[in-house]
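Appendix B, record 7
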Amino acid sequence: MVLKVFFPQCCNRADSGLLVGRWIPGHDSAVVLTVIHYPFIPGQVKQYVQQMQAQSKVELSVLGSWSLPKEGQEGMESFLRDLSTIFPQERWLQISREIGKTGFICQVLNRDQKEEEKEEKEEEEEEEKEEEEEEEKVIFVHYEQRKVMLSQLHPIQNGVPDPQADPPSELRQMFQTVAHSGPLFFMDKYDDGPLKSTHWQSEGREASIIVELLKQASVPLCLLISWLLSMWTCFCNLRIFSLSPLRFLSTKLSTCVQLSYRTEHMRTLSSPKTAAGHTQFMRKANILVSFLVDVALGMLLISWLYRDNHITMLANTLVPAADHVAKELDELLQWLMGAPAGLKMNRALDQVLGRFFLYHIHLWISYIHLMSPFIEGILWYGGLSACFGLTFALSLLSDMVALLTFHIYCFYVYGARLYCLKIYGLSSLWRLFRGKKWNVLRQRVDSCSYDMDQLFIGTLLFTILLFLLPTTALYYLVFTLLRLVVVLFQGVLHLSVDFINSFPLFAVGLRICRPYRLAEGVKFRVLCEEPGTALHLLMEINPLKGNTVVQTYRTPTYSCYPKDSWAALVKKLFVGELIYPWRHKTTKTD
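Structure tokens (predicted):
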């Protein structure tokens, strides 16, 4: 039988004393957490262990004794061995280390063996019985206590464990034991208590004044944010905002979607409840870091916009750019109204569609020139939204692009509706020729008999639609390409906003700076294998892979861009269905 002892590296040179730790249930292994130094009073040790067990909720016990020989401490090993009668355990680990050797010597005393050794009076008979006893093979696994305590083993197990499920693995229980034994590591050498111990904080507690000050300042700050959010919620719940036009705009404008998204983030951060688990803590940390980085980037954008009169330059460039786009569209329509690429078009329909779209262009140019005196003010006040973060500025830019290209959207909708009407008309009339019809109730194609008049009218309509289709398809193709350019630009903006909102900056920074905090597993290497000593292994933490970190801790977002596959997108384009650059904001994707 092999007994595994997880031994902290910080205790390798600890003074002689008692080993405090935990036996892992269901496994033949023990976790050593600290060494209580000699001299001590056994009653005080028992009281201290019970107190730490109540605080940490971990089944702590005295595992055995630790002996490191020094001058003037002859007979210490036998004294510590006799303490097994005061601290009754199923097993008593008697670990000792000789001077000049790296390995440990471990003797495992069972309860029956301790009773037999107590009855023996002569040393010769005791040595004979020890030789006859079947010795257990012991393997020491050395671990760095601080890293194991601060690390989180993946995959994460949150919530109450199911009693019918498989019990946690030995390694996971070992990590949980060290992580939950925080109160045991608060006693250092500067304490005035009667007991002294060795652990990873025995030389002094690890703390930060800045972190403590931030903890103190976070309480009133969270109360202020909660009050502001409650006022904002009362304002948004006014009856005027529940009207259908305003409700529709709030779900389609990127700025409103981003505002609701940030409001939810602020509610999560200002919650007075502490994080229930590692996942919730990482979510809050990622949201906080993402918000701070977003605001920092927004302030950089503001410093650029309001320096060297950049806003005036943008306003003076916007109107000529709109005129140039309108001129190009006018030339494109004049080209389509002729013989584009030598194609023979339907003259009457071509002229009607061309003049219809030209009229829309003239209306749009008149609207732009009417708004030109106010464009600089709109840009000036709109630039201030970047103080809430770069995502607000990008969302506002997306909405401005949607408004400035509204005429292109109208052209696309007109062309798509005409093209879709003709496509569905041709498909319906094609079923008429084959003696079939579409059953609306059963959502399938059924057989049907038609009379001569129906076939004659169907043939007439099919011929008219077929010969008018190339002219409509050409206009639809041109304006669809223009619409796709606008959608592509808006998609880049939305992807940038979603990237800032959802990218786990804190988790990635933790993976880069302190990779042991996010553990995927462990690896072992032989540390020492001296004759006459047990096998010693060094446990090292394998950090989580970068792509796994992003997938695990990525914040769920309200995506504003379509998630259609390429096949579905091509099908929509072919049949003339409208392509929108948004999804409903309540559709949360991970």
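Remarks on this record: Residues 452-502 form the longest helix (51 residues). Confidence is low (pLDDT under 50) at residues 159-163, 583-590.
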